[in-house]
């Protein structure tokens, strides 16, 4: 009945409903699809593979050795052949052995060439294998692409193009970074060259001219340049003959250095001049720098109540970081840091230790009080040295703790009670009048009031507040006090007869000058302090000459011994007779005696001084 289907005839069917709805898709596809009738365009990977193939084939051809000469003379030159026979030598050197050696060399060369050829063949085969694998990969990629729809192929091509563009941009960035690094390295080299030239030019220090000094007064101070100028100036002064500027005097360099040091470290010119006279220039800056740093906190163990080992363990348990002070002290501890206030621990309140500077240990150690003696501490506040003397005497004997300032004696009384000292009597007298009160002491400790030039780290106001009048006033008071202290000592004591004079100053006027004055005015002599460290005292300073025995005194500096600046001298009294001036007749002798008495007790009892 109906039509028969002929399977050989394929009936072309028209577009379906979906195709009719998507009219205009052909035009959109034409934008993405390219004409595939022409030669196929290689992808970025394909181009890279092709370049590698060409490069490897060129390397293989280069590795193959060429016969004959490789230069322009190869047309008319030919490799030389052996002319002589093996059995006909011309000379003694042309023997069979010689020929045999040549044959061996030729054979070795041929073997090397053969090996190179084999290697070239192997590399060629490997290259061919790699090319075949890459071709297979490309074919697989092509097959995959054929299986994809036209739109998917177009999207894949776009993706590949983007990747290729990203690779090119990354390569460009790498090149730019390499260029920047090269530029930086070149710039650094140029900087190094300029620095080197600047150092070469600035090797010789030059004094600033009048215009530069005027500009410095107007422009704000540059502390960094001043510090560098101090270093350069000191270097020139240490090697003045070789590094000085022609036509310039040493005094000009010294005046500039003093001005710069005063500006940089904030000292007045008087005090800086004193320090420049006292220290070598190479040591001066170290001393000034040490004055800018606080000394470490130290405590003294009260052996009347505990041992140093037990105290250290108790403080460590409370979070205190500490160490023994040094081999020279058996009771000192240095505190680095603490999680609790070191002046309010239960151990402190129980009197197991005393907050005391390391330099304050030294005069008591030099005094070396013995048990059962009568000892005077002429200026005892705040009581650190007094209580140290008491613990060395094990609460035996008698200690008179005197101070001219009644308000400061309160701290002495408080520390005596807290530390458990029971052999001390507290008095409030002017030290210069103390011989009238009582005498006959076995040992006397005089920590005289001073300008405080050794404790600038504690009191920076000393930098600008002290002048020549203050130094003279302190020196005059110290001379009066040392004579009164000597008169308080009993020279006939079986165990003592000693005086220790100390100050927290480093000026010569307050130390060596005072002791030298006492040596001339009283029957005393200097003896060793018993301290194993410290700098010897001056026997000669500028235009002054002192007694040779002053080398037995000891000086301590912040930059050398890491403690406050201190001076310690120990004197032994060998006669209670007060020497007078040159012996004369009758009234002259009495006048001299009256003058010495006036000198000895020049101040009235109502006068006082502050320590």
TrEMBL record:
Q: Where is the composition biased (Basic residues)?
A: 10-21, 42-55
Q: Please state which protein family the record places this protein in.
A: Belongs to the class I-like SAM-binding methyltransferase superfamily. RsmB/NOP family.
By which gene is this protein encoded? Answer: NOP2
Write out the ranges of the annotated region (Disordered). Answer: 1-218, 582-611
Protein name per its UniProtKB record: SAM-dependent MTase RsmB/NOP-type domain-containing protein
Give the location in the cell. Nucleus, Nucleolus
Q: Which Pfam families match?
A: Methyltr_RsmB-F (PF01189), RsmF-B_ferredox (PF22458)
Query: What is the native source organism of this protein?
Result: Amphiprion ocellaris
Q: Which residues form the active site?
A: 504 (nucleophile)
GO BP annotations of the record are: maturation of LSU-rRNA; rRNA base methylation
Q: Which UniProt keywords apply?
A: Methyltransferase, Nucleus, Ribosome biogenesis, RNA-binding, S-adenosyl-L-methionine, Transferase
